[in-house]
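re the bet — no i am not wrong, look at it urself. input seq straight from the record:
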Amino acid sequence: MFNECQMKTDACQNDKDAIAVMNRGRCGRIEFPEIEEQEDEYGVKELFPGDDLQLECHATGFPEPDIKWYKGTQQVGEGNELFLTVNEGDTGEYICRGCQLYEI
């Protein structure tokens, strides 16, 4: 009896048409992360100290990308949502990136 994981790994390695990877037990061709953008996600939000800020970000790709949040060059969170209770030092631009082998 073959090990199922080994069989899937072998199947991925035998893909001659493109690079293939394992992701949570699935084989597939590498698809670079792409942020799913919504028209209302851009702009300026006016908030005051003590207000709550919630930002959402979704990305597609294979293997499934991890979401990382940045304010400038500093990473400030991970995951599809960023929650902050606003302080005076939180003014700035927040960016999400879909990360895997490469970042966008």
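see?? The first strand starts at residue 20 and ends at 23. told u. also Residues 4-13 form the longest helix (10 residues). so pay up
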